[in-house]
Amino acid sequence: MSGAQIDEAAVKQLCDVAQLAVELAKKAGAEHCEVVVRDGTELTTKVRLGEPELVQESGSTGLGIRVIKGGKRAVTYTSDLRREALEALCQETVTLAEFAEPDEFALPPDPALLAKSYPELDLYDPAVAEVDAAWAIKQAIRGEAAARKHDARVTNSEGATWSRVLGASAFATSGGFVGGYRGTYASLVVEPLCDDTTDPTTPKKRNGYWWTASRFMDQLEDAEAIGIEAARRTVATLGSRKVPTQECAIVFDPEVARAIVGTLFSVANGSSFWRKSSYLIGKEGEIIASPLVTIVDDPHILRGPGSKPFDGDGLPTRKNAVVTAGKLEPVLCDVYSARKLGRQSTGSASRGVGGNPGPSTSNLVMSKGAHTREQLLKSTPSGLYVTSLMGFGFNPVTGDFSRGAQGFWIEGGELTFPVSEITIAANFDEILKRIDMVADDAVMRSSTVAPTFRVSHMTLAGSAKG
């Protein structure tokens, strides 16, 4: 069971379908239309305790169309790409637009701004398509077996999952843009379980994980290495306990640090600004973080997980600064949010098959610091090293941040014992401004990337003091 290769001819076919739909929509009465077409396959294999638990391979094809007529817009989608089906869809979409509420900002981009060409970013690996279910299962078994063998305290497993996705996307507009590209992505996740009998009266299950992912097969880490690291991280949580409520330094592991960076974007984008749902409104050009913080959104990283040659409006993508040495740069916008704010798009639109475009990131990367992770820890007398966050305690309007956390207590510059069942809190503005040390250990496995960094102090809510 292996996926069919997606070649350039297949991408051209999708572009042709998108252009056909544009023509049909114009014939149906649309003043402007945009069409996105996507085609791809996904393979997911999961094993648990050495036995296959899931083997699933599926393909999907979808076409979404947005039409604008008289300042009114409508969006529909279908999986039927036959000409007669597209004709009916286009007519239906134009009719729906006629009944919609007018929106003075729902206008197409200036044709002069549309991408005339776009870069080749090396996003497709033929080797990913060659992977069949049998090979994927073997890798998952190897990863899980390595975790169970590494330490006798690994007594159970949530399983190991090997997945791959390959697909192609095309986009065409009545303004004259047409383009398409293909991509692949593969990953392995191993999730061991341990029995924590540190307190015999309340035995608990401790779970952990580790993973590898890339667009290219030769950049994936070895399955056994992933299993061993997953086991190491899981066993390390045995004996977790609370610590007293206090203010202390908080060090964010890269896995958690990237979630902090993603949270920043959730309030630093054109949509959150025009909707008045961000505490950062009015702060562009101001210092909103430590001078150690520089974050860029870069869609042109070769083989990058979030790289894309053009955006969801058909505009050229470009590298955008989000934060430069602590200063908030102009927020990322698509055409619509830019118009609402009286500015220009930053080439940051993204869209699904069945929706309107909106501002999004590509590869959102926080710059590395000048120190190693070990140097950062050594310079931390005491505090909490956070490896995971729980809950959704963030208010985008006020910036208030409060999340459940677990990790390890730092004492004398060393990780000592595991900590759980605590909460960390501060205003997000204070978190960013209190970052006082950044490590150099960022690794690009996903489209949001950050290194280890330290916040000088936050409130830690745990057990009552002695």
Give structural notes:
The chain is of the alpha+beta class and 466 residues long. It has two domains: 8-233, PmbA/TldD superfamily (PmbA/TldD fold); 239-260 and 368-461, no CATH class. It is 23% helix and 35% strand. It contains ten helices and 20 strands. The chain has helices spanning 8-27, 83-98, 126-129, 133-150, 223-235, 254-267, 270-274, 335-341, 373-378, 428-433; strands at residues 32-48, 51-69, 72-78, 154-173, 178-196, 204-207, 210-214, 246-252, 295-297, 320-324, 327-328, 349-350, 358-359, 364-366, 382-390, 400-411, 414-427, 435-438, 448-449, 453-461. The strands form four sheets. Strands 1, 2, 3, 4, 5, 6 and 7 form a seven-stranded antiparallel beta sheet that branches. Strand 16 and strand 17 (414-427) form a beta hairpin. Helix 1 (8-27) packs across helix 2 (83-98) and helix 4 (133-150) packs parallel to helix 5 (223-235). 46% of the residues are buried.
